[in-house]
Each structure stands twice: as C-alpha cells, then as structure tokens.
Amino acid sequence: MNYPDWILGFPGGILIALVAIVHVVVSHFAIGGGAFLVVTEKRAYGKNDAAALAYVRRHSKFFALLTLVFGAVTGVGIWFAIGLVTPEATSALIHSFVWAWAIEWVFFFVEITSAIIYATSWDKLDRKSHMLVGWIYFVAAWMSLAVINGIITFMLTPGKWLQTHNIWDGLFNPTYMPSLFARTALCVLLAGVFGLVTIGKKDGGARERLVRWSGMWMLAGSIMLPVFIYWYFLKLPKFSKTYISESLTNVSQALRGGIACAALIGAVTLVFALWKPRWMRAPVVVVLVVASLGLMGSGEYVREFSRKPWVVNGYMYANDIPLSAIPVLQKDGVAAKANFLLTTDTKSMEYGKNLFTLECGSCHSVNGYRSMRQRVKGWDAAFATQMVAHLPMTKGPMPEFAGNEADREALGKYLASLNPPVDYGTITDANRMAVGAQVFAVHCGNCHTVNGDFRPLRDAFTNSTPDQVEGLLPMLDTMSTNMPHFDAPADQAHALAVYVATEANRPLSNPPASNQPGPPPGVK
Amino acid sequence: MLLNVQVPSMDPMPLPGPVWLMTGLLLLVFTLHVLAMNAALGGGIWTLWNYVRGKKPEHPNSRRLAEELAKMLPIFLAYTITLGVAALLFVQVLYGRFLYSSSILIGGYWIMVIPLVMLAYYGYYYVSYTAVKGKSRTGLVAGLSVLCLLMIGFIFSNNMTLMLRPEVWLKMYRAHPNGFNLNLHDWELWPRYLHMMIGAVAVASALLAHLGMLKLKKDPEYGAWLVRRAAAVFAIMTGIQFLDGLWLLLAVPRDVAMVFLRDPVAGTVFGLALMAVITAVILIVLGSMADKPSPLVHVGVGMVVVTVFLMTGMRHLLRQAYLAPYLDPGAVVVKPQSSAIAIFFVLFAGGLATVAVMLWKLAKYRKMQSPAGAGDAAA
Fold first, then answer.
1. What is the ipTM of this complex?
2. Alpha-carbon torsion, ordered A297, A303, A305, A308, to 10 deg
3. What is the C-alpha to C-alpha distance for residues A467 and B193, in angstroms, rounded to an integer?
4. Minimum distance, in Å, between the CA of residue B92 and any CA atom of chain A
5. Which residues of chain A lie closer than 8 angstroms to B377, CB-CB?
6. Which of A196, A277, A524, B330 is the most core-located residue (most Cβ within 10 A)?
7. How far is B323 from chain A (nearest CA, A)?
8. Contact flag B361-A125 (C-beta cutoff 8 Å)
9. Per residue in B268-307, pLDDT tens?
10. Is the Cβ–Cβ distance between A498 and A433 less than 8 Å?
11. Whether pTM exceeds 0.95
C-alpha cells in the first residue's frame, strides 16, 4: 500500500524464487566447496598425489568462476528482487537486521578476497600459506551462512522477536540451529556433486580415485541431511506442519519431488561414485547437478510455502501488507490509504483489478501460476464479495483481506468477471447428485469437505435429511459470522442439500458418489 | 506545491543505529565503491583502447598495458560489487522509502542490472584469460563488457535521480506500472550520468598514473610512458568534467542547488572539492611532465581520492536538499542495536586484519622468490 506495486503479469514470488534457487545451489556449493578444495589440497600434499593436485588447481578456477561471479551476483539479485516485489518486508528486515547484514558483509568481503587469492596464488604462496588462505575462505563463507541463516529462519519462526523486536531474539530463533545444520549438510553434499564437474579425461588413472573422493562428500552430506531436515520439521510452527501433514497438493508434490531427487542423488552416489566410479560419466554428472537443483528447489519451495500466508510470520503478510495495517485499511479502505493506485474510482472494474494485483498478485496470477480463473469458477459478484471477507477460512493459507466494504465489492466484482456464471442446465433426478456436488464445490468446497480432512461436515449432517439441510441453508451467515450468505436458486439449493445429506450418511466403506467435486459443468 | 505528493511513510521500525554513523559508513563505502567502479569501467575502457592500439607492432607499450590491465579487471569488478552491496545496505536503511519506490518504477530495467553485471563480469574474466594470447574475440568481448557497464551506469543514474523526484512518481507509475519507465524527462539525468562515466575514465587514468609510477623502477621507459599518457587523459577528462559539472549544476533545480551557497557545510565541501581536483590536476600534470616523472604524481592521485570522497559528500548534501520537503529528522526514532554495532566494528577490524595477513603473505613470498630470479609466476 505504501509503495508502487510492480505489475509483472505473474506473481513476483516466482521472480524471487528463480533468482533465489539458483543462488542457494551455488552459494551452498561455495561453502562446502571451499572446505573440499583445502582438504583435497592437503590430502594431495600428504599423499604426494600430483594428479589430485592438478585436479584441485583446475577445480579452484572453476570454483572461483562459478561462485565469485554467478554466486555473488545472484546474491545481489535477491536483494534487487525482494526490494522490487516486497519493499515493505525488505524495509522491515533491513531495519531489524542491517547490522547482521553488515556483519555478514564483513565475512563476504573476506570471502571474496580470499577466494581470489586462493584461486590465483598456487605459484605465489608456499603450501602452508595457500592452505591457510583456503581455510580463511571456508570459515568466512560458513560464517556468512551462519548470519544469513538467522534472517531466513526468522521469517518463518520469529520467536520472541515478535514481542521484543530484539535483533538476537530474531536471529537465534527456534529453527536457527536445525536449519544451519541442514544447510551445512547440503554444503557438504554439493561440494561432492560439483567436485565431479571438473574431473575428466585429463585426470587419467586418478579419475576413479577422485570420483570416489567426491562420492565420500556426497555420501556424508546425504547421511546428515535427512536427520537435520527431520529436526527442522520438528521445530516448524503448527500451521506449517499442517500444510505438510494435510498434504496440500503443491506441498506434497514438492515434498515428493524433493525426496525423489534426494533418493536419486543417494543412489547415484552409491552406485556411480563409490561402487563403480568408472561409470561416472558426463551425463551422470549432469543428472546429479539437475537433481541437486531439484532437491534445493523443492526444499526452498516447501520452506517458503510453509510460511504462507506470511512473509514474516505474525508480522507481515505475503502480499507485503503488515498485520498492523489491516484494521486501518478495513476501516478507511484502500483508496484512502494506498499511495500508488492506478485509479481511485472505487466503483470501477479497473479499481477491482488494481486491488487484485495489489493484494493477491504476489501469489496468484489470473491464468497462470495459482490461477484465479480456476478458483473463482461459478462465483457471482455477491458470492465473491462475501468470500473476500472470509479469506482466512479457505483451504489454502490466505491472509485477511485488507480493505473496507467498497473494496470487497470492487474485488468481488473483478473476481466474478474472470469467469462467467455456471449453467447447471435442467436439474433432474438423474443429475441431481452431480449438480449438488458442483454447487458444493462452488459454495462450500473452498472451506469444507463432507468426508475429507479439511473441516468435514459429516458429523454435523449425519442423520440429517435433505430437507433439514436445505432448511439450514438460508441461515448460514447467521449461524456463523465466518460463513457467507447462501444465495442460489431453489433447485440448486435442493441439489446441494441432497448431495450433502447423501454423502454425510454414506457408510465410509462405500465408494463416494463424488468425493472430489470436479469443475462445474457447462460454462456459458 | 509538494503537498499532494505521495511518498511512502517511514518504516514503523526504529532506525537500528545513529543516523550520523550510518551516513558516515554509507559515504565511506560509497566512495570506495565509486573508486572500484572507476577502476573497473575506466580500466575497461583503457584496456579496450590499448588492446586495439596494441595490435600494431609499433605500440608495444599499449599491448603490454592492455595485458596487465586485463588481469586486474575481474578483481576491480569483484570489489565494485562487494562495496556496492555495502552501500546498498546503508542507503536502504536511510533512504529506503525513496529508493524502493524509484526502483519499482524502473523495475523492468533495474532488475536487468543483475544479468548485465554477470555478462560484464564473465566478459572481463574472458578478457583476462585471453588478452595475452590475443584471441580474435578478446577486443569484442572487452567492448561488450564495457557496454554492459555503461548500461548499468545509465540505469543507476536513472534510479538515483528518480528517487529524488517523488513529484513525478504517481504519473509515471500510472503510465507504466510494469516498471518500464526511465527518468528521461529529468534534465539532471544526462549531465549526472556523464559526470559518473567521464569521472570513471578520469579517476582510472589517475590510478594508472599511480601504476606507472610504481613501474618506473623496473622499467623506466614503460613507466614514464604510462604516467604521461595517463596524466594527459586525466587532465583532458577532468577538463570535460568541469564543463559537465557546470551543466549538472545548472540542471539541478535552483532552490536545491542553492544549498551550496546557503549552507556553510555544503559550501565548504564544494569549495574543498574544487580545490582538491584543481590541485590534483596540477600535481599530476606537473609530476608527469618532468624528465623523470616525480612523486608529485602520487600526491596528485591522493588528491583525486580525496576529491572522490568530497564529491560523494556533495552528492549526499544534494540528496538531502532534494528530499528536504519529505524528510522530518524530528520524527525519526533511533534505537541503536549497540551490541550488534560493536560486534560489527570488531569483526570489521578483524576482517581487515585477515585480509592484511593474506596480502602480507603474498608480498613476503614474492620477495623471497624474486632474488632467486623466479620472476613473475604465471597464473
């Protein structure tokens, strides 16, 4: 509300994710890889292994090119992206943690300097000093992770900070330690994966030895990672755990993807790196790098999603609206408070569209990612307006709507315009259950299931007849302030009542008539 | 006139440190960032020119200079970015509500800074690896890298001028809410951009004069050539800077520019900067004209660094004057995070010491190797 809203045409979170995921892969490699370089160097000296030394020299050049340029610049890219997409949250973070970032910057400065020196001073330093530079690099790099980890975990589990606003309470929050350990395990794993990239024909007979050495790092990381991730999950806030335990489709898909990537990495490590290192060829390495990206991407996705609907849990919503601003906006309306609106004509469709980009656009697009057109099927303006008032009750994690009645109406009108009303056709005995399921999906399914996990209606309606259910429908909003007013033609209301009563009384061992209502039929 | 201008309100969170401290750190790191940027961009232009010129056998010095400079370019850019991050940190905490707003307005271009830096950076690495071998594409890549940096400078100049102009934001936002705006209608944009870019070449030239002085001992002919050439370019560029500076001063709205006349501190900084740069030109030119370039050049280069610092101060005072109608120092709540600030300074000192140790180790090893006649080891 404070800042202009960058209208990208797709959720800004995607831009942040694109920059962040590639950054975290390279930045974790930048840490583990630092240790990998020095330990490999030390080992090569100890064993007088010229081939390993030649390899580690080559690897240090690749390391510098990837981490100093791509790693560092994408890190700055995250700064740019978050400032553009969530300026309010970025401002809150910078006001709380500027000194943490300043401390991190000191480590970054040492990191950059030591990396440049390490990669270019193989012939310009004695062995001991060269390794000292390597260790300095690793310590600085890991310390910068230790600081940043505090800020990242703060956003999900701010802990006591919400009361004290104390920097140390924010940094050393409930998920700080498990996350730091899990990320360190990832650093070790990625050091091994990227260690393979520079092993080639040039290494001749030493090739298999080097592959196995990288494999050891991958194995160590793979063993530690699940333990620390489990510890991390234990420390998650309750609401985040439900996203995982109740299996929201996208979270469970991301989780499954992550587990598959981790399993693939584990299997490839055992077979191609440790058992038969001569099988480790370029395509296998590519698979490993891609699987690492997948593992990191799905991990970061689950971590980010488990914070929804917040950007800073308990302080600021994902749409960059602070919790403290909600009451003011609900009283005075967006038009009176927002600095950069495309129009202030609250009656216009343009205003509703503007509210959509402002309040929903950071997570939803109209047609693409988390498409609203799909989600508002069958909604008319009145129903959409009511739904906007009850967003936190819906199945997905949603923030409160920040606006007054006029704003709700404007947004409701815009949402309803995305999809024309549904035509159920003539309702007969033959299609009544099917239509009822569709009416349920439109009017009730956003916040309820009948026999499912999410706010099931079964207990309320077991032993109810369709007439009894139908009798309750006009009173929904008086029964609970969290329920919208039910307003649909009588035949649709009847179909809904038949569907709910039948489903609620169906023995659970029987297959459902239509447990998962599909999209409404016949869109005009 | 400004009453109806919408500016984001201050962050409800208190400032985590005294304004003077964070402003001081901002000015310090920004000065260092500018020096590194000047070396990276100005150095890139010098490399490109001398690389092309050095292809002819009659210009061996140019060829040598291009090869030497090429190796340094990625390092200059590394520190430009590193120091830029620090400046970005403090400018966000002090001026975030202005900077975020203008960044979003030009968001489509602003985000392009990232891929452009990456291209320039990889380009510089390519040049550093291939300049000696003289690959056919080296010059082209160097040119593209320089072009990327010039584009980044233009995007930065747009943002830094636009953040001072809240009165145009709403209209601009409504014209292109997708972030494809530029601050082209602002008369200050062009002279300011030129000021930074010409300044980059001037300062890089001064630094090269310094490099030339360092080479005098081992190779008097090459060292003297470099000092003279760099001094000449420095003097010419600084002359152009004077004209551009005048244009810039005229382009700044009168009531804002008056700060240098009305405010004794601003007036003093302005006067000192002017004296510093004139002294720098005189010293570098005189020092380079002697039969054997004299240490006056070193002093002159030192004055250039002082000038950059004073100019950074002027830039800050101008920013304050621009934003005066929107700033209310009395409303700023400061709650210093003393323990974190103390830890930062201790670590900062520790960090500098660590870097010093590494550089000392390098210098010691070089010294040990040189009497044995090992010469410069290949990278």
1. 0.94
2. -150
3. 76
4. 7
5. 123-124
6. A196
7. 17
8. yes
9. 999 999 999 999 999 999 999 988 899 999 999 999 999 9
10. yes
11. no
